[in-house]
Specification:
Layout lengths: L14 E2 L6 E2 L8 H4 L3 H15 L8 H9 L5 E3 L4 H8 L7 H22 L7 H26 L24 H4 L8 H18 L10 H14 L3 H13 L11 H4 L6 E5 L14 H5 L2 E3 L2 E3 L4 E3 L1 H4 L7 H6 E3 L7 E3 L9 E5 H15 L7 H11 L10 H11 L6 H7 L20 H6 L10
Antiparallel strand pairs: 1-2, 3-7, 4-10, 5-6, 8-9
Helix pairs in contact: 2-5, 2-6, 5-6, 6-8, 8-9, 9-10, 10-15, 15-16, 15-17
Length: 457
């Protein structure tokens, strides 16, 4: 009898093919997880492998940035590429066989399975400090991935009174045999998924060291907690988490708006995906630079120029704004078409969360709560504005902060999530429109009778 692997995948690699059929679902390599993690070195290698998964094009290497941007594309960006999966997302004509929705789901659950295996193998690690750090890293990775999954594959927090709308399946044990992989699981509620995300990230923040090199540390977990609480409109907790990151003194704004995207692990970066010219998300059919860049460099064109920045959005920037003059440009593809300069080097690291975002979260939360924890909203907002060469705003409003988020964090994967949490529409689509939610992959629903599909698919 043929076994169908549902929800979780034990595969280590996913084959990529042509533009309109890029997902090859045949596992290229698999492992017996029971025998793979037998030493402390094996456990740490598994964690390193999970970080590698985070940088894959299905996750932060491309899709956890690009899909949220395309879902909120109106008056912002235009997709001009040939990849059918992305075109469906941009046009809200997504099919339940959409390759991008499918590969993101599979890769996320593969990485979650890896860290679940780590958590169940920590007894192999004798060094108490290392054991604590590896547990923190595993819970950090699991927490951020469930956060990304529930935001993409479920209705926004607050869409129902008690957040009982279907979220995603919570799988909290390792799948190490084909029999386990063939077991079915229902979708947990959005409330249950958020509870798990917060538990994982909170525990990670207590387990991880203040500084863990290029890997996740205490402040990476706290920064993601600030994002999670903000997505829930829990401003008091978002404020506390963001303030802890800022007050740590571990981070500072870079002097220029381009520095975080031209240099590795800058003082502003709280967590970023480590890449180089030999090991990156892709240079032709995947990767942020592949899709966002349209750069003519020394007679060679870099990037496909698939994501065009719409002129009306460009014109919203103050003409003196350095983010306008230094991070937006006319590309080689088309006449007078703008592109973002944030993703312009195939081998560059990918900043996932930065201090500028923490300052804007603290400013917004303080404004909504009528407080001045850590600093005044004006001080935090103007730190970001003045870095961009703009005049300060003496008495900012929440709308000022939200506008600054659009300018500062554009093209970093937050677009649809900000629109949803602030209950704004994108074009004719309301914040809670099911068309702004990705489908559960058809192959998963077909294999699992407990897995309920999202409306419209």
């Amino acid at each position: 009898m043929k076994k169908t692997f549902i929800a979780i995948s034990i595969m280590l690699a996913v084959g990529l093919t042509a533009c309109n059929n890029r997902l090859d679902l045949q596992p290229q390599q698999s492992i017996d997880a029971q025998t793979a993690l037998v030493t402390a070195q094996d456990v740490e290698s598994a964690i390193i492998g999970a970080y590698g998964d985070l940088g894959n094009g299905a996750l932060y290497g491309t899709n956890l940035n690009l899909l949220p941007e395309l879902l909120g594309a109106e008056n912002y960006i235009t997709w001009r590429g040939t990849f059918a999966g992305y075109r469906q997302v941009a046009q809200r004509s997504i099919q339940n066989t959409n390759t991008e929705a499918e590969r993101t789901w599979l890769r996320a659950y593969a990485a979650i399975n890896t860290v679940n295996n780590v958590l169940e193998s920590l007894d192999k690690v004798a060094n108490a400090t290392l054991k604590k750090t590896l547990e923190g890293e595993a819970k950090f990775i699991r927490g951020i991935l469930y956060f990304e999954l529930v935001r993409l594959y479920a209705l926004q927090w607050g869409a129902t009174a008690n957040n009982s709308q279907p979220g995603v399946p919570l799988v909290l044990r390792a799948t190490i045999t084909s029999e386990q992989a063939a077991q079915t699981a229902a979708r947990n509620t959005v409330a249950q998924v958020y509870t798990q995300v917060i538990n994982d990230l909170t525990q990670a923040s207590t387990l991880l060291p203040n500084d863990n090199g290029a890997r996740a540390d205490k402040y990476s977990a706290l920064a993601f907690l600030a994002r999670v609480y903000l997505q829930q409109n829990d401003y008091a907790k978002a404020l506390t988490a963001a303030n802890q990151v800022i007050q740590s003194g571990m981070f500072r704004l870079n002097p220029s708006v381009t520095a975080a995207f031209r240099n590795r692990n800058t003082a502003e970066s709280i967590f970023e995906i480590q890449q180089n010219d030999q090991n990156n998300a892709g240079t032709s059919n995947d990767g942020l630079t592949t899709f966002y860049a349209s750069l003519p460099v020394n007679g060679v064109n870099i990037g496909r120029g698939d994501v065009q920045v719409n002129t009306p959005f460009v014109n919203q920037y103050d003409p003196a704004d350095a983010r306008r003059t230094e991070l937006l440009y006319i590309g080689y593809k088309g006449v007078n078409r703008y592109y973002t300069g944030k993703w312009a080097d195939f081998g560059a690291n990918i900043p996932v969360i930065r201090l500028a975002e923490m300052l804007l979260i603290r400013a917004e939360a303080n404004l909504r709560l009528g407080s001045t924890v850590g600093a005044t909203p004006a001080a935090d907002l103007n730190a970001v504005r003045q870095r961009a060469g703009l005049a300060p705003i003496a008495s900012p409003t929440v709308e000022d902060v939200l506008r600054e988020r659009q300018f500062e964090l554009a093209f970093e994967g937050l677009r649809i999530h900000d629109l949803r949490r602030t209950r704004q529409s994108t074009g004719t689509y309301a914040w809670n429109d099911p068309k702004l939610v990705l489908p559960i992959p058809k192959r998963e629903v077909d294999a699992n009778s407990l897995l309920v599909q999202n409306p419209g698919y």
